[in-house]
Each structure stands twice: as structure tokens, then as C-alpha cells.
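Researcher: Quick test of sequence recovery. C-alpha cells follow.
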């Protein structure tokens, strides 16, 4: 049961990341790749 629960949490986190970072042109979320997101922000300025 613990394995299933952790898998469900991982899936929910992925979905949340996709919603939040959809605006970042499908970049890897900030907590995984802050440099890519910072570069994207610089391009928009």
C-alpha cells in the first residue's frame, strides 16, 4: 500500500508541475532545473 501511495503522490506532483510550468514552454520544473527556468525568464525580458 505504501508503494501505491507514493506512486500516486508522484503522479500528482507531475500533474501539478505540468500545470504550473505550462507557461514555461514545457521546461523542467524550477526545483529540478532552476537554470533553464532562469534562462527562459531572461529571454522574455
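Model:
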Amino acid at each position: 500500500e505504501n508503494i501505491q501511495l507514493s506512486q500516486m503522490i508522484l503522479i500528482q506532483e507531475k500533474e501539478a508541475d505540468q500545470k504550473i510550468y505550462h507557461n514555461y514552454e514545457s521546461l523542467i520544473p524550477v526545483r529540478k532545473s532552476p537554470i533553464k527556468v532562469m534562462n527562459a525568464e531572461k529571454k522574455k525580458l
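The chain is about 65% helix and 0% strand.
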